[in-house]
Amino acid sequence: MKNRVSRSESSRAPLVQRITVDEILAEDIIRFEVCDLKENVFEFLYEIDVWGSGRGIVVKGDAYEMELGIPHPWDQLEEGDVFLLGCFEVVEKEGVPGCFRVNPHRRGVLKIDEYDGFRDYVRELYSSVFRRD
Amino acid sequence: MPDAKPINDEDLVFHILNVGDGDNIIVEFPKDVSTGERFYGIVDCYDYDKTADYMELCRNVRPARKQLEFICATHPHKDHIDGIDELLLNEEYRPKEFWDSGFRHNIQRYHNILKILKSKDVSTIRVSSGLERYYGKVQVTILAPSVALRNRYGTYGVDVNNASIVLRFEHHRGDVMTMRSMEYLGDVSLELVRDANPAVAILTGDAEFDSWSYIVDEYPRLEKTSKHKPLVKKMVNYLKCNFVKVPHHGSMHSAPLDIYEKMEPEFAAVSARQEVSESRKKNLERNMFPHESALIALEESGAEVLTTEGSHDFLKDATGKRVRDANAKPGSIIVVVPPGQKPRWTKLDDEESKVPNVIPNSI
User: Fold this and answer.
1) Is B275's Cβ below 8 Å from some Cβ in A?
2) What ipTM goes with this model?
3) Which residues of chain B have pLDDT under 50?
4) For the sheet containing B322-324, what is the strand order?
5) Which pTM value belongs to this model?
6) Of B30, B72, B172, B328, which residue is least crowded by CB atoms under 10 Å?
7) B87, B71 contact by CB (below 8 A)
8) Which positions ≥6 away from B283 have C-beta within 8 Å?
9) Which residues in chain A have their CB less than 8 angstroms from residue B79's CB?
10) CB < 8 Å to B115, chain A
11) Beta strands B12-16; B25-29: pairing state
12) What is the residue-averaged pLDDT of chain B?
């Protein structure tokens, strides 16, 4: 996967975040991992190296929407759910995401872990560690 | 605790680092006879900086080689793996082996670890119950995850905690491979000798009930009764140990009383930072780490308990009565296991983001 990289590396607030449900600690407490999209990335898909280091955030249910801005129902969150959040648009290819493009004029949330492309990426990443060519 | 004794070259040492709400354990193996050096294995790493600084301090007291023997990520939750990528990226620490539970979690940190393992060509093993490794007189046996659980990670709802790698360390008096190659010594079954060996420690990751149910099935405690002859000749209880790192930070789902009754630990360490949970459905408010049920189970087992945050420390007084230490402070916990002998332990005084002032050479 090739990323389109800007020649200017001006600093800005993260426009897109990758938020993953890391651990459901109790009915009312969940730890999320939040990663910011790297500053010089404007197009991406499922690859992991476009994201900065993930930080853990422990969130209580009553503050969840306000703190993270994900509209997904709290009691339906599952460990391993992955959301994209922020200023981006989906560029479709044959009915599925072909890439995600940063767009400061759009704002949205998308759950991406159930897309075949995401699963294929994880499967390939995991298998490659054990494969001995 | 009685008077401190020096840590000898043959002693196995566990360092349970105080890193707040995460797990971070350095296993300091006895001096390798061939190289004359100690060496380390890492079981979970939440805080790279503290781990690296702590090992440096430790090496000043007891020389050890920098290259790690293994890194074991018991399971890919963030509070167990957050510092592993930096350990892998540091050429001096890069381990001979990486032990993985096989559970594919979606957090960036875990995916990043996978990328580094691939790019640095680190030997990676998908670990499951039954695997054994031998380091001089130390035998490491993997008790979990069971193959049965591992084979259904992707289908029937095994959660990440129940994928945890559970490790059993047994520190023998003699060379462990020689012992394993002989079944009997005269008329005495070596399994009986092993059963009497007190130098056993169990590190549990975040294993919960499903995992423990398979462990007790695969490693049963076989008992003699006064009325019946045993069904088998070898009487082995692989769960019996002197030291246990309590699973899942002592949560209500950590391990039931039955497990501690099988373990009969003298000492239990809990790595935790307290969090309060409120259940509106059940109208409940309770401490999570450690939870009251885990503390009661440990009390029933009679184990002394130290917590890295200092919230629930129970030690025995001169009469053997278990007493809560009201002045307990946070700190890393050190457990020393001499070959074939009972362990001894102590607690340091380091805050979660700092290293201790001194690493003791006597405990």
Assistant:
1) yes
2) 0.92
3) none
4) B132-135, B138-144, B166-171, B200-203, B243-245, B267-270, B304-307, B314-316, B322-324
5) 0.94
6) B328
7) yes
8) none
9) 23, 31, 56
10) 48-49, 125
11) antiparallel
12) 90
